[in-house]
Design brief:
The structure is a single chain. By secondary structure, the chain is of the alpha+beta class. The protein contains 10 helices and 13 strands. Strands 2-3-4-5-1-13 form a 6-stranded mixed β-sheet, covered by helices on one side. Helix 3 packs antiparallel against helix 4 and helix 5 (about 145-155) packs across helix 8.
Length: about 325
Amino acid sequence: MALEPSGVFRWLLDVQHEWPCSDSIRSGRDASHYWAQEEDNQSALALLTSEEREKVLRFYHIRDVKLSLGSQLLKHCAVVRNCGVLWSESVISRHENHKPCYVPRNDSGKHLEFNVSHHGSLVVLAGCTDKNIQIGVDVVQIDTIKDLPRVRQEGWPSWVKTYEAVFSEREVRDITTWVPSQFLNGDEMLKAKLRHFYAHWCLKEAYVKMTGEALMAPWLQDMEFRNVHVPRTARDLSNMECIEDWGEAISDVEVWHGGKQVMGVKLELQAYRDGYMIGIASSRIDIPFFPYKILDLQQDVYPAAKADYVSRLVP
């Protein structure tokens, strides 16, 4: 087994059925404590540092505990599989802007730039061993059950206005007035509008994370996306070519800042299943995005923690 090749690799881990727990401890002040007593959960937590375990177990809902645990495990797995070091040496560092990264001891060996996002039951990690790259990734699950009642109550323009601090005036106008190409009625129209809103949101999150800033960045309203359209789901592509749960990927979105188009940034928005979108932003248009790879804990992640894994990586 060889080291991961050069390029931006993209991993996905679904934690929905991992580390199960009884219904009685799905949330609550002590839920994570009881959840951590399960043997399989203890084994997974043991692969983390004490500081990482503390971060994982601070959440109120077990679904958030599992997402955080999956995120931490993917980070270490990415370092081991891409930099050729032992799991115990896969110490996660941070840049001055607090973005996570891996810097080898004595600066000899492969670096790793990466970014992680999680929502719903998915954890997504994108990374590259090129030191001169910035990467941002965001995954969103479109929760129409949560959003629709508020949209109906407030009206679409008022609901969008709630988020005007995140978007430019043009983006707010585009999101508010956008209508799908096919005629839809009632809630189906609102669901389509929500998908378009979250397409904007996902792209902006990925771009901002690439820069190392947060959604409170002072330039946020000066930066906008144009030509945003919603990637079709695998269901939408049922009569066309699609692979399992993967829908359409779009990459022709334009970035504008201060009235000028930003060049040299690579963007992609990918539809996954019926309710997810994954956005990725890279500062290097010359480095390719590799296809997404769905990881399995037992086959892909846990083996990387074994002491002999590095020797098996060497061709």
